[in-house]
């Protein structure tokens, strides 16, 4: 399925971006997300009480910025999830780049193909050395890094 076929999709996607004190990364991340061609998209930035408020960095009306009174860590994702209206919710940290139209189409198709799927994780590839990173799982990355598997 190509992105051109889903310009006016039924599935609403919310992208929740968690940020704390990384204004350059946030700017890059949001710029990439705003370039997506998906027609039913909500973008929410959750600012974990950054020194420079995210609202000073992101002023695009297509982006909802929520500022936490204090840094609540990864629980800030829940703040964004509770505010989201999407059928599918994507959570990203401010320093995760490369989420493109193809990634979005592949993600949506996972949920459309199998109604028992409730969560999907992305393979995270480092910008510089192109190695898979952020593997925090009980299975070995060498064996499962390129496979679908059930988790708990």
Q: What are the segments in which pLDDT stays under 50 over at least 5 consecutive residues? A: none
**Relative strand content:** 15-25%
Spatial strand sequence of the major β-sheet: 3-2-1-4
Radius of gyration: 16 Å
**Largest sheet, strands/sense/barrel:** 4 strands, parallel
Q: Assembly type of the shown chains?
A: single chain
Shape: globular
Task: Give a written overview of the molecule.
The structure is a single chain. This protein is of the alpha/beta class. The chain is 27% helix and 19% strand. The protein is built from five helices and six strands, in the order βαβαβαβαββα. The strands form two sheets. Strands 3-2-1-4 form a four-stranded parallel sheet, with helices on both faces. The radius of gyration is 16 Å and the shape is globular. The protein starts with 12 loop residues before the first strand and ends in an 8-residue tail after the last helix. The model has no long low-confidence stretch (mean pLDDT 86).
Quick take:
The chain is built from five helices and six strands, in the order βαβαβαβαββα. The protein is α/β, with parallel strands linked by helices and 152 residues long. The longest helix has 13 residues, at 101-113.
Write the layout of secondary structure elements.
Elements: E1 13-19, H1 23-34, E2 41-47, H2 54-57, E3 63-67, H3 76-83, E4 88-93, H4 101-113, E5 124-125, E6 132-133, H5 141-144
Parallel strand pairs: 1-2, 1-4, 2-3
Antiparallel strand pairs: 5-6
């Amino acid at each position: 399925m190509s992105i051109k076929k889903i310009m006016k999709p039924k599935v609403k996607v919310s992208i929740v971006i968690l940020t704390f004190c990384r204004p350059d990364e946030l700017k890059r991340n949001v710029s990439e997300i705003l370039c997506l061609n998906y027609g039913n998209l909500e973008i929410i930035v959750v600012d974990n009480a950054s020194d420079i408020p995210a609202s000073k960095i992101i002023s695009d009306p297509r982006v909802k910025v929520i500022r936490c009174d204090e840094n609540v860590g990864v629980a800030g994702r829940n703040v964004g999830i509770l505010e989201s209206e999407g059928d599918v919710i994507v959570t990203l940290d401010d320093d995760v780049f490369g989420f493109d139209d193809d990634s979005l189409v592949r993600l949506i198709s996972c949920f459309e193909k199998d109604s028992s799927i409730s969560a999907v994780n992305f393979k995270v590839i480092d910008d510089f050395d192109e190695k898979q990173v952020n593997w925090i799982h009980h299975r070995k990355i060498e064996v499962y890094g390129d496979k679908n598997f059930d988790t708990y």
